[in-house]
Amino acid sequence: MRVSVAVPAYNEERNIGLLIDSLRAQKTRRAEIVEIVVVASGCTDGTADIVRERAKRRGTPVRLIVEPTRRGKVAAINTYLAHTDRARTVDAICLSSADLLVAPDALERLVQCLLINHDIGMCGARPIPTNGHGTFPGEATRFLWHMHHKVALEAPKLGELVMLRSGIVHGLPPESCVDEATLEQLIVAAGYRLAYVPEAVVHNHGPETLRDFVRQRRRIAAGHYWLRDVSGYTVSTMDVSRIARLTLSEISLRTPRRTGYALGTIGVEVVSRALGYLDFRTGKNHHIWKISETTKSVITEELRVEYDLDAREPARQVANT
User: Fold this and answer.
1) What's the pLDDT tens digit per position in 293-316?
2) CATH number for the domain including 255?
3) What is the rounded distance in angstroms from the CA atom of residue 186 to the CA atom of residue 69?
4) What is the pTM for the complete model shown?
């Protein structure tokens, strides 16, 4: 299965080189990664220069598309779809957030899912955060992604790194601020199923401040309410009964510290969803959002060794990871 990888990026100089390295280091058997396309939108840092430098190295071809103005992640995805013939000639398109590290077998596992299940139109990897322990934002991020995993095992909710069959989606609504959720809706509307592939692992890094955490969760909630309103599609993490049932299974008096963090995370999530609903009702659009700088420190020394990444790239320290 021939795969084109698209990476929308805005001011990602701290991680874009490492992401490209991890994509180039994929161990494949049935997947053929024909190119990596980075869409750098309105970048004011060294993102584009790092991509150009990586493009000169041996390995999977790397191509750079530069947008002079930042118009949001969905707009960058639409630019990729409109400006690359690969989107129409490959078998699958992989969309990757720019602030990830991708495990060596992740793309192969996603390709195998599509090859085995012909009724699946899109599948997604499992994000595992590199946030440290002992702070509320770090623990909240870990708990949130753990719950994301549990929900996705029952009803796929895909994010961070997804792969879809080529030819199903030709563009996303420009007003969307939840690209993966919007892709889910378009794939399901086209008559295909979704699949979660937990064995395909990517590492990300959540917000390290409460303010950034709430801002991120608020934006996502607003986008999910908007998507439900315009299309009738509801992502699985918006199913309150499922969330309540799975969350209760995580609460135990035998682990008071973890339970305390879990209850705190639930409270912050409720507030964030309420603020997101207010944004949706008042017409506030988040399709171009404020970047949370604290989410850009993905790499740790442990991951550098595990992924065998270029030691010339400086690691960002993550406390207690």
Assistant:
1) 655 566 556 666 666 665 445 443
2) 3.90.550.10
3) 27
4) 0.89
